[in-house]
Amino acid sequence: MKLFLDTANLDDIRAAAKLGVIHGVTTNPTLISREKGDLSAIIREIASLVDGPVFAEVIAQNAEGMIREGRELASIDKAVCVKIPMTEAGLTAVSALSKEGIPVCCTLVFSAAQALLASNAGARYVAPFIGRFDDIGYDGIEAVASIAEVLSDGEFGTEVVAASVRSPLHAVEAARAGADIATVPPKALFQMIRHPLTDAGLAKFMKDWADSGREA
Ligand code: G3P
Predict the structure, then answer these.
(1) Whose CA is nearest to atom 4 of ligand 1?
(2) 37-75 pLDDT, tens digit each
(3) Quick check: 165 and 182 in contact, CB under 8 A?
(4) Is 131 a pocket residue for ligand 1 (Cβ < 6 Å)?
(5) Residue 65: CB within 6 Å of ligand 1?
(6) pLDDT, tens digit (0-9, with 9 covering 90-100), for 78-137
(7) pTM for the predicted model, two decimal places
(8) How does 78-103 read in b/e, with b if 16+ C-beta sit within 10 Å?
(9) In whole angstroms, how large is the CA radius of gyration of the chain?
(10) Catalytic residue at 36?
(11) Pocket test for ligand 1, best of 6, 7, 35, 133 (most atoms within 8 A of CB)
């Protein structure tokens, strides 16, 4: 499973990019709203920092506006993948933009039925939000598994991007559930690095080395 970074914060993207584990970046209106500056400039800068797709979401709620904004977003950089919400108008926009060769992620997908529609409309990705299920007492990982299952025939090559990842465990469970990608916020990504046994083991190596009288 590939890892993407879920943020629009350029400093966080620079820090994560150094690890060499990030294969794309996802943004959305909430993540963009936390940053200052012009949307196009932010997206263009993100595209310069990572190898891989940069997801940027439309704001319009009607199909014509989504299509117009999707074309505008796609024109910012060749790395841009347009995010379109899973609505009736959204499906029309997914279909139109996909036919123009513009990569689209259908977002806010919460059911296998929605994922099937998005895939048939030409979405390159579908994004189920794990954390949002957990917020209302449902099992987000189960939803990812169900969506991955119905898309597993590869009929349209649509990939599952597990989103709203709130912890390292979410990322691991998304992989187990069959997600193609997990988009992970910076905090959870850096939490994935740490393990107490790694820390303890390294400390012991360094102590034994020092105790042997060798230079650090
Ligand atoms: O990728 C979607 C993500 O940014 C939403 O996360 O934690 O607000 O559900 P959250």
Answers:
(1) 164
(2) 999 999 999 999 999 999 999 999 999 999 999 999 999
(3) yes
(4) yes
(5) no
(6) 999 999 999 999 999 999 999 999 999 999 999 999 999 999 999 999 999 999 999 999
(7) 0.96
(8) ebbbbbbbbbebbbbbbbbbbeeebb
(9) 19
(10) no
(11) 6
